[in-house]
């Protein structure tokens, strides 16, 4: 048996690409890391392995706490962490969701080809940058008055559809239909609501982006056809979340947990794992507020989609429906949801925490949209500004291995602080344009430096592991043409 030693953490390879941290005192289950040896070496460079081991200390964790191939150090849970926790006798952890509740990604298709944009890159990137608010702080597409905020928090994309910002097909091609019925806007603090009021329809900053891409490779012709993808097609990727509202929701409930369940925290190895006991008033309040923030994030991405459609229509002087700008799929990757899974031969309701991990339900699963049920749920895995992104489908092994989950991106190799020491934004922008024909526009050069291609893991390797384990099958690869960052 092959072992991997990383300081005070030792892993054993139980099968190819599956590494296990054995159960020890305080751990309720073993922990598993899904990675090749090269990815594991990168994962071991920060605190990821200790963090996934710590997750197993949470009451009610079942089977294994899991780290996806793109894992890296996070807050409490590692980014790339997945844990299913018993919904009756366990807990729910804001640290297992993160501050950017329902950070997620969506892909919008077009019927344009790469040649249609050649020579017009600067025109389009400037127009999109002007149309979609970016950066820290305020700026949104709509004014978040009381009625708008209540509608977005309570009803998600149903509200966006009624307000004229979404089509009925948009709802049919979004995880959960773009609506969490358990949302309770009254559980969202006034401070959180105020922070989100002027941010509906904005990218924010950090690793969030809007990217026009071209489809470079098709790996499964039949599934790609079902998804409406073909070689040389232009698509748009939108990656953002719940902005300041989600951040404040997380902060509010972490503070309440510290005040109301300090004894619960005393038994955990990391205060950042702060959790509320299942069935407690606080757990129910957090779940309702989190679901409201989830709905807010879906509306946020939908309003950006609206702006993108209108911008394409203006630039190409063609109504957006005639440009084929339909939503392929929108999938979340910072979320905790009540789901039913088979655990030790029995169906159990669990809170599946996906922190920087993507739901990846296989063909035939009843929660996969009807249009894709025979093919499997679309999974979107972004790379970096200088690398490809991937469209996968939920793999046949995902339910047994990972509670229906896979990676959410390439995963960072270095911190933003280190990135700004090692890279210069203008140099990255120039290199990408000169060598890769990628046009990047951002609020500042520092943002570009923080997101330089070199700060990310090899997305090809991440996807290779996902495919090999049967948790996500490659369907298509894309490559950036234009990139907008906050």
Automatic annotation (TrEMBL):
<keyword id="KW-0342">GTP-binding</keyword>
<feature type="region of interest" description="Disordered">
    <location>
        <begin position="176"/>
        <end position="197"/>
    </location>
</feature>
<feature type="binding site">
    <location>
        <begin position="333"/>
        <end position="334"/>
    </location>
    <ligand>
        <name>GMP</name>
    </ligand>
</feature>
<dbReference type="GO" id="GO:0046872">
    <property type="term" value="F:metal ion binding"/>
</dbReference>
<dbReference type="InterPro" id="IPR036025">
    <property type="entry name" value="RtcB-like_sf"/>
</dbReference>
<feature type="binding site">
    <location>
        <position position="333"/>
    </location>
    <ligand>
        <name>Mn(2+) 2</name>
    </ligand>
</feature>
<feature type="binding site">
    <location>
        <begin position="382"/>
        <end position="385"/>
    </location>
    <ligand>
        <name>GMP</name>
    </ligand>
</feature>
<dbReference type="InterPro" id="IPR001233">
    <property type="entry name" value="RtcB"/>
</dbReference>
<keyword id="KW-0547">Nucleotide-binding</keyword>
<keyword id="KW-0479">Metal-binding</keyword>
<dbReference type="GO" id="GO:0003972">
    <property type="term" value="F:RNA ligase (ATP) activity"/>
</dbReference>
<feature type="binding site">
    <location>
        <position position="389"/>
    </location>
    <ligand>
        <name>GMP</name>
    </ligand>
</feature>
<feature type="binding site">
    <location>
        <begin position="408"/>
        <end position="411"/>
    </location>
    <ligand>
        <name>GMP</name>
    </ligand>
</feature>
<feature type="binding site">
    <location>
        <position position="208"/>
    </location>
    <ligand>
        <name>Mn(2+) 1</name>
    </ligand>
</feature>
<keyword id="KW-0436">Ligase</keyword>
<protein>
    <recommendedName>
        <fullName>tRNA-splicing ligase RtcB</fullName>
        <ecNumber>6.5.1.-</ecNumber>
    </recommendedName>
</protein>
<dbReference type="GO" id="GO:0006388">
    <property type="term" value="P:tRNA splicing, via endonucleolytic cleavage and ligation"/>
</dbReference>
<keyword id="KW-0464">Manganese</keyword>
<feature type="binding site">
    <location>
        <position position="485"/>
    </location>
    <ligand>
        <name>GMP</name>
    </ligand>
</feature>
<dbReference type="Pfam" id="PF01139">
    <property type="entry name" value="RtcB"/>
</dbReference>
<dbReference type="GO" id="GO:0005525">
    <property type="term" value="F:GTP binding"/>
</dbReference>
<feature type="active site" description="GMP-histidine intermediate">
    <location>
        <position position="408"/>
    </location>
</feature>
<comment type="subunit">
    <text>Monomer.</text>
</comment>
<dbReference type="GO" id="GO:0170057">
    <property type="term" value="F:RNA ligase (GTP) activity"/>
</dbReference>
<comment type="similarity">
    <text>Belongs to the RtcB family.</text>
</comment>
<comment type="function">
    <text>Essential for tRNA splicing and maturation. Acts by directly joining spliced tRNA halves to mature-sized tRNAs. Joins RNA with 2',3'-cyclic-phosphate or 3'-phosphate ends to RNA with 5'-hydroxy ends.</text>
</comment>
<feature type="binding site">
    <location>
        <position position="239"/>
    </location>
    <ligand>
        <name>Mn(2+) 2</name>
    </ligand>
</feature>
<feature type="binding site">
    <location>
        <begin position="207"/>
        <end position="211"/>
    </location>
    <ligand>
        <name>GMP</name>
    </ligand>
</feature>
<feature type="binding site">
    <location>
        <position position="100"/>
    </location>
    <ligand>
        <name>Mn(2+) 1</name>
    </ligand>
</feature>
